[in-house]
Amino acid sequence: MKDLTIEDRAVMLAKYIIDSKDTVRGTAAKYGVSKSTVHKDVSERLIRN
Domain-by-domain residue ranges, the chain? Predict the structure, then answer.
């Protein structure tokens, strides 16, 4: 995940959560980031359309 931009990481995490219906904690554990990072990525960094 270190080679991804913040925007790409946010999209990847959001897609994973939607597809797997996993929680923020589960997603954080799977990708090795903090739950705060996952939450911030999907709630603040994604562009809303």
Answer: 6-45
Q: What CA–CA distance (Å, rounded) separates 48 from 12? A: 15
Tokens of 21: 């219906």
Q: How many CA atoms lie within 13 A of 34 on its CB side?
A: 3
Give 1-39 pLDDT, tens digit per residue: 779 999 999 999 999 999 999 999 999 999 999 999 999
Strand runs labelled E in 1-49: none
Of 22, 44, 48, residue with least CA distance to 9: 44
State the Cα–Cα distance between residues 33 and 41, nearest whole angstrom: 11
